[in-house]
Amino acid sequence: MTIKVIKHPLIQHKLGLMRAQGISTKSFRELASEVGALLTYEATKELPLENNSITAWDGSQLEVEHIKGKKITVVPILRAGLGMMEGVTQLIPAAKVSVVGLQRNEETLEPVPYFEKLVGKIDERISLVIDPMLATGGSMIATIDMLKKAGCQQIKVIVLVAAPEGVEKTLAAHPDIEIFTAALDNRLDENGYIIPGLGDAGDKIFGTF
Ligand SMILES: O=P(O)(O)OC[C@H]1O[C@H](OP(=O)(O)OP(=O)(O)O)[C@H](O)[C@@H]1O
Ligand SMILES: O=c1cc[nH]c(=O)[nH]1
Ligand SMILES: [Mg+2]
Asked: What residue intervals traverse the membrane (predicted)?
């Protein structure tokens, strides 16, 4: 479908803080969660609503709006995706969680899958895939492949930072998805790291340097 770069001042300010050398694990993790929440607000903006009748505080019948039909499953890509989970689930507390584990081989840059636990009836849900980094796109494409194979028909992606190469590859493989990001950065370096990027997001979130 498309990529949407969300230029909200709060998002850009927080992302700018995340780019600083020597940022603490505590600050990086908190900011990843906060930017994740703000991007979730944008990514859920067009969810359809339906009217439902409830009994209100004074006993009267009242028409209120609820999110219609399909409900969301959040899909964090291990490990780094877990760093956005708190913020995302603060906004969607009832969301079911489907976990996917992928480790990028640092030499070939190919994603190596090692875990998959998806919720039931995923064909009836919208998947909201979360990962701080979309670099070559390999991990994201493999995750979307898994979700589609399990029957999921509607997929949105939230990443903190994306590289043009990875976005192009992901949208070419899966033109029906939507990507929400805080930044579309310049390029990948020779090791597949996003420039300017954030460095190794997983290591920063988990403190594994
Ligand atoms: O677009 P790609 O080229 O596939 O790279 C992006 C992936 O790399 C990072 O994870 P990593 O493999 O380092 O695992 P980790 O989260 O366990 O650190 C990142 O969190 C993405 O999942
Ligand atoms: O820039 C990058 C690329 C892949 N994974 C990261 O954590 N950072
Ligand atoms: Mg990593």
From this structure: none
Residue 192 Cα: closest atom of ligand 2: 3
| Residue 36: closest CA among 3, 96, 94, 80 | 80
Within a domain: residue 52? no
Beta carbon of 133 within 6 Å of any ligand 2 atom: yes
Domain count, the chain: 1
Peptide bond into 79 cis (omega under 30): yes
Task: Say how many Å lie between the CA of residue 198 and the centre of ligand 2.
Answer: 7
Is 56 among the domain residues? no
What is the domain range of residue 96? 2-47+66-206
**Confidence check on the interface: ipTM exceeds 0.90, yes or no:** yes
Strands 96-97 and 71-78: parallel
Residues 164-206 pLDDT 10s:
999 999 999 999 999 999 999 999 999 999 999 999 999 999 9
DSSP notation for 16-37: HHHTSTT--HHHHHHHHHHHHH
In degrees and rounded to multiples of 5, residue 192 shows phi and psi of: 80, 20
Those residues with Cβ within 8 angstroms of residue 19's Cβ, 6 or more apart along the chain or in another chain: 196, 197, 198
